[in-house]
Design brief:
alpha/beta, Rossmann fold, five-stranded parallel β-sheet, two-stranded parallel sheet, SGNH/GDSL hydrolase family protein
Amino acid sequence: MQRAALLNLAAMAAAIVAGIAAYLLLFATLVHKPLTLDIMGAYIDQKQRIMDATPSPRILILAGSNGRFSHSCAQITQDTGIACANLSTTASIGLKYQIDAYIDRMRPGDLLYLPLEYYDPAYPMRDDVGDEGAYLVHAAARRLPEIYGWRGVLRALFSFDLRFAISAVGEMLLERAGIDRRTNLATMNAHGDETGHTDAKAQAYRARNAALPKLSVSKQSFEDADYWSKVSLQLARVRARGVIVVGGLPTTFDDTEIAPEALVLLSRHYAAAGGCLLVLPNRSLYPRSYFYDASYHLTESHQHAHSSLLAPRLAAVLKAGGCPPAGVEP
């Protein structure tokens, strides 16, 4: 009886090991998302090339898709004569992964502007692992330990489920059929900005934008010590390179409710990291009709108008060599 029990236990263990091996083999070598995840690597590679071609001292913009759609380095350069590179991709990528990708190319005297999307404590990025974790499992698994440590590696390796597999197979079929994303490398300009999201194209999304729920930004979003300690750690790495750090507000609908205490806390976070917070008089809030296909995506014309409001303020901080003692006034 004891021998039979041991054999059963060994068979169960072998089945578990085989199941884990098959799971990892499936997602590390076969199933992937070419349209929504693999594009991240292509974006990062292209933006690294843009950094290499952009002289210092320069303005660098880093956020999620709000940074890409709503901010125009082309406009900032036109307005100020200062070189500018837009490093933004998507908010679902971890900040650590992005800083790792760009920090060796940052130079003393550069200004890094971060209009990061509002953080939602209900959807935290555990162990700094964002959507890039699944991408790296397939594209560069050997890099996982150096980026995240063992906890992050486990989180990345076991982030897949049946829903992911089904959507991945769908994307692979779409790619094979020659269907591409609406936005891709072809819609990015030489500065790294998103282009082509015109007011005319936005008409198709007007009803959708109007139906989106109102965003509420509470002070609780800025009281998450674990999240902001991780952000501060990345900002400290940037400051150690001699880079000026300026925080900003993301663009969103003008019916967004922002608690006054929230901006006070956000300003303190940047000040503690040796930077400052730039708040425009309109707090980067615009009518829903100014947006393309989402609350964080201004249309191209308003992208340029918003960037023109930012341009002289960012230029003043860059030329001064750092943030003023009291931060950046509107």
